[in-house]
Predict the structure.
Amino acid sequence: MTEKKEKSKSTRLNLNSKFWKTFLVILAAFLTFAGPTYMVYALLNVFKMNYFVSMASGFALFIAGLVLTWYLIKRKVIS
């Protein structure tokens, strides 16, 4: 039974890998800083979306970046 649990845990995201640590930290930084700025600009000017839709999506990306940063701190990936 414990072997089955360990096997199912190994298929999840391995936070001991340097690649995944680096990738998730860069993704969190991108979502937190580039989401509300560059993505809002791209949605407004390039894709000609509504102002409120682009602002809401930028806010959602910012919140996603903060949640990912909180998750990484909680799992002690970021000290």
In short: The chain has one domain: 17-74. The helical segments are 2-10, 18-46, 51-74. The mean pLDDT is 87.
